[in-house]
User: Which sequence fits this backbone?
């Protein structure tokens, strides 16, 4: 780009020199050539200064998520911000608190601040389609988390139904191992308010029915974080004290369920909490042989996810090809492999 600019400048300068030579004296001609040389030097300095300023300022990224009370999201955002800073870039992350109107305002702020790319975790994908169309028309790249939108460059997704099935399958293995007749009372902590998590909850239920047909789901209540997970589990246990297995759509609910079971006293060998996210707290509970028995890791630990997301945003800005439909891998973490992923206290 700089070479092309210099070529254009030199062409213009030579044209000025030639025109001046047609009607100027020798003295004026020398003055004109000196002025042209000074103009060329100044243009070079300005171009280099502009490039240096751009390099110094780095790339700008904006991230809007549903809630930062979710530990996974908090760690992912922190990781991305740290990686951006190391690269001389800037990454700003905010929570829309499950409010689409607030998220639209945040997106507008990202545009006004000069972001090169944004990552959006929408509570309602349809609500942000129009604003994201305008964003992309301005050349800003858009990455969507856990949704499929028309106005995006990358949809960063996971098959939530299959993810839920893995939770249910692992819970069913536990039930069939611990209960000879397969009879066991089960509670499911889901979150049908969001389409992706509704699919995940459906996967859990279907897998339990298929793989542990004698088990009975006696309660199904929404829980998205530790606080709600604890409260909901305590309420369920009051009405169904024989519940032994709890399946959760996320790590927050799982930790809440784990705490509720711990308050009952010693965790028996036939009690288990099965979930998704694989937070470090879940890993610690698994390692300590508390109620948490398994959690599905998607992509990897939170820092691993943050690194992958930051890499995708950087690739988008740098023009590196990225698949529009980006599906993530997932796998179970149990007592057998927890040491590979647990990051310590």
Assistant:
């Amino acid at each position: 780009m700089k070479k092309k600019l210099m070529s254009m400048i030199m062409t213009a300068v030579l044209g000025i020199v030639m025109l001046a030579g047609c009607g100027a004296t020798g003295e004026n001609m020398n003055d004109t050539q000196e002025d042209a040389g000074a103009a060329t030097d100044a243009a070079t300095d300005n171009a280099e200064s502009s490039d240096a300023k751009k390099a110094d300022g780095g790339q700008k990224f904006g991230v809007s998520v549903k809630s930062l009370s979710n530990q996974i999201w908090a760690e992912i955002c922190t990781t991305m911000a740290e990686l951006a800073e190391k690269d001389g870039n800037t990454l700003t992350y905010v929570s829309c608190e499950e409010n689409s109107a607030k998220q639209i305002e945040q997106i507008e702020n990202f545009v006004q601040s000069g972001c090169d790319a944004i990552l959006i975790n929408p509570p309602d994908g349809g609500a942000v389609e129009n604003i994201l169309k305008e964003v992309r028309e301005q050349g800003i790249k858009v990455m969507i988390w856990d949704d499929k939108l028309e106005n995006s460059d990358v949809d960063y997704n996971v098959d939530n139904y299959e993810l839920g099935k893995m939770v249910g399958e692992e819970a069913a293995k536990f039930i069939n191992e611990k209960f000879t007749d397969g009879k066991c009372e089960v509670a499911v902590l889901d979150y049908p308010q969001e389409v992706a998590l509704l699919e995940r909850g459906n996967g859990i239920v279907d897998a339990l029915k298929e793989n542990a047909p004698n088990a009975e789901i006696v309660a199904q209540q929404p829980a998205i974080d530790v606080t709600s997970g604890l409260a909901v589990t305590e309420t369920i246990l009051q009405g169904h004290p024989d519940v032994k297995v709890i399946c959760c759509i996320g790590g927050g609910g799982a930790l809440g369920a784990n705490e509720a079971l711990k308050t009952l006293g010693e965790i028996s060998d036939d009690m288990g909490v099965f979930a998704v996210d694989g937070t470090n707290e879940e890993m610690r509970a698994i390692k300590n042989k508390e109620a948490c028995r398994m959690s599905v890791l998607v992509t990897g630990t939170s820092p691993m996810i943050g690194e992958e997301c930051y890499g995708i945003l950087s690739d988008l800005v740098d023009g590196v090809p990225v698949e529009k439909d980006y599906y993530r891998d997932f796998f179970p973490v149990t007592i057998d492999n927890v040491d590979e992923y647990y990051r310590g206290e």
